[in-house]
Specification:
This protein is of the alpha/beta class. Helix content is about 45%, strand content about 20%. It has eleven helices and ten strands. The structure holds ligand C2E and magnesium ion (MG) (3 copies). This is Diguanylate cyclase (GGDEF) domain-containing protein.
Length: about 290
């Protein structure tokens, strides 16, 4: 009986595995198609200066409209990450985001002496150890003509810590003039002391710290900001949703902030409009960004 029972389970398991693999293959094929047929788009979330809320740059965030239905990146990027498909995705995003910022610069020429907006692109951890990443970035810069210092690559700390190959790639990218940011900082295991030795320019403090009501967490944010500044890094706070959070970040001398309070991720049209000078007395249009969930 036990044996029969066992076999039954194995069959159920087999069946489940087969359909999981089929689903994965189907999703992979759909992602590949989406990269070519316009179903995949980028939205751009503005990043602002904490001090005066002026535009500092953008983060490109991929959006997939699959047969008219929105699929969140947290759902399909993990599928892409199971294979080298994620390299194709990252390459597409890099090409699109650099092209877009270059187009905005052509439309609204930079004001001499004023800092220019940057474009941050998320790079998958898996791609970091792949030599094709360096080529993909070089190709995107060459094709768009974007100055390298306006491109920021966001990487998560989990892959960074002890992967010498990833470190080498990041160093090469930095030598090209591209900036590196650690995304979701605080959720992994990087100690503040390790930052000193990492080829990075910016820390993005994870939303969970920014929104935490716990005074201990807030003290930690203050500490991270001070340490980052000591090592010459700039700091972006992610996920700012309330005025009080922004006020606190200002007191903590945080450099930049990003979050629904400031701007939602915007379609290219609305994001680019922020660069155009606003006539005096006319308030800037409020976001026509993504709907409040
Ligand atoms: P992330 O890089 O940490 O991006 C920030 C996420 O927080 C975005 O979610 C953004 O919409 C969301 N967000 C921004 N402000 C707020 C806020 O005030 N409150 C809340 N609750 N959320 C806020 P999104 O676009 O769903 O992306 C999720 C993750 O998927 C990203 O996290 C990133 O890891 C990944 N991702 C997105 N686009 C790409 C891409 O083009 N390539 C790769 N490799 N990964 C991407
Ligand atoms: Mg990011
Ligand atoms: Mg993040
Ligand atoms: Mg995050």
């Amino acid at each position: 009986r036990a044996k029969q029972h066992g076999r039954g389970r194995a069959e159920v398991f087999d069946e489940a595995l087969r359909s999981a693999l089929a689903l994965r293959a189907e999703t992979e094929a759909a992602i590949t198609a989406a990269l070519g047929n316009g179903e995949m788009r980028l939205h751009y979330q503005p990043v602002v200066d904490v001090a005066d809320q002026r535009l500092h740059g953008y983060e490109a965030l991929v959006r997939w409209q699959r047969d008219g239905v929105f699929v969140p990146p947290d759902e399909f990027i993990p599928v892409a990450e199971m294979s080298s498909l994620v390299c194709d995705l990252d390459r597409w995003v890099l090409g699109e985001a650099t092209r877009q910022l270059a187009a905005w610069r052509a439309e609204v020429p930079p004001v001499p002496g004023e800092p220019e907006p940057t474009m941050a692109v998320n790079v998958s951890g898996r791609h970091l150890t792949d030599p094709r990443l360096v080529t993909a970035v070089a190709d995107a810069l060459a094709a768009s003509g974007l100055p390298p210092h306006l491109l920021v690559l966001e990487v998560t700390e989990t892959v960074l810590v002890d992967d010498p190959v990833a470190m080498t790639h990041l160093s090469r990218l930095r030598d090209m003039g591209v900036a590196i940011a650690i995304d979701d900082f605080g959720t992994g295991y990087t100690s503040i002391g390790q930052l000193r030795h990492m080829p990075v320019d910016t820390l993005k403090i994870d939303r969970s710290f920014v929104t935490s009501p716990d005074p201990g967490q807030r003290e930690l944010v203050a500490l991270i900001i001070r340490a980052a500044h000591t090592f010459g890094l700039s700091v972006v706070a992610e996920g700012v949703e309330e005025p009080l959070q922004l006020q606190r970040l200002r007191q903590q001398a945080c450099d930049h902030a990003q979050g629904f309070l400031l701007h939602r991720p915007l379609p290219a049209e609305a994001a680019g409009a922020l660069l155009r000078p606003v006539p005096d007395g006319v308030p800037a249009p409020r976001t026509d960004g993504e709907p409040v969930p």
